[in-house]
Amino acid sequence: xxxxxxxxxxxxxxxxxxxxxxxxxxxxxxxxxxxxxxxxxxxxxxxxxxxxxxxxxxxxxxxxxxxxxxxxxxxxxxxxxxxxxxxxxxxxxxxxxxxxxxxxxxxxxxxxxxxxxxxxxxxxxxxxxxxxxxxxxxxxxxxxxxxxxxxxxxxxxxxxxxxxxxxxxxxxxxxxxxxxxxxxxxxxxxxxxxxxxxxxxxxxxxxxxxxxxxxxxxxxxxxxxxxxxxxxxxxxxxxxxxxxxxxxxxxxxxxxxxxxxxxxxxxxxxxxxxxxxxxxxxxxxxxxxxxxxxxxxxxxxxxxxxxxxxxxxxxxxxxxxxxxxxxxxxxxxxxxxxxxxxxxxxxxxxxxxxxxxxxxxxxxxxxxxxxxxxxxxxxxxxxxxxxxxxxxxxxxxxxxxxxxxxxxxxxxxxxxxxxxxxxxxxxxxxxxxxxxxxxxxxxxxxxxxxxxxxxxxxxxxxxxxxxxxxxxxxxxxxxxxxx
Length: 483
Prior knowledge:
This protein is 45% helix and 14% strand. The chain has 483 residues and is of the alpha/beta class. Helix 1 packs across helix 8, helix 3 packs antiparallel against helix 4 (108-136) and helix 8 runs antiparallel to helix 11 (392-398).
């Protein structure tokens, strides 16, 4: 769904938190040096200064993209980058002090020592953390890339990517479009597809990005770009023959030693992604606390009606095909998954690509009465009020999910996806989304669900997320329930 800078926005967030921590550690050290042992935040003037300095550092880091290409910067370039950031922050900070405080009240030696210590330990912290990130980077932490090329170019393309920014990518395979070399290996990487089955491979495997370099002797396969775009896969095309593609988000960036034209279903800057992740973390912490309180209330009720685990976990397919375990309060009997196959014929969603059923007999407390009516119990209450969804705040907190996104399919549903259905997986799955607040009880056409998900991804913004969250509250209060 999103364009990535050299490292992901999650790493941007890590660096920002560490920089802010260094700022506060430096202040505490400077305070103790000049004022002696005591509460560094007990003096009103000093406390205001620290708050202002923190806000300035955060805003400068976000809006001036201080962490862009940070893993590529060597020691000297990092020194210059930190120096520039501190110079800008200091200038803004001093101007703020001039407007909001009498400068005679500011302890200038303490201020100078504070900023000096902060500069030194921030520089050291960045070098150390970059070393940690690079050393611990493994296959699961990299962007999964499929390389599309020709037989005579594949060696040079792989070497170019590896020699420039291979730390960013995990190459999951090569597709050679002018020869049938499927099953062979080159430099330890398997050739996984040819021109006939490349789309099927991308649809059924975890692929974040596709890089296309087929040389000047071949024209760019526009049909491939169109297919990848319909699946929501970020696509890079080496600019030997770049063409304008109407209706898609395109931008210029670097992949390895290449300048490429990147096509994506949507684009967002690291700053906006940082805001989204910050909201997710705050909501995740708060939601986990509420989940603990709800556990004390509903765990005895669930266990009384259906002895067994209180929480239910299930493997789901998330962004770009990456699987994870989703958590819920258990609202169904323990044999619900086995009984699902028996009920497939009563699935309300056409095509069987998602399961939804009225009066599902697998729900805890369900009983069919002699007069043909149904008795609903604790399971129906959990689902109708969306209480069963609260454990997913843990998924949000650890980064598997977001507050707002698309609903993650089960593995068996995902295996039946057609190519264009994959677009639903181009963003991080969410607890709620556009489909859920658009009358989901009445929507039984899976294609309509996919269209709503694509609409959400194409028009994503923080403002739209907030609107969906507000509509979700309204839907839940009306008692329309959850997935």
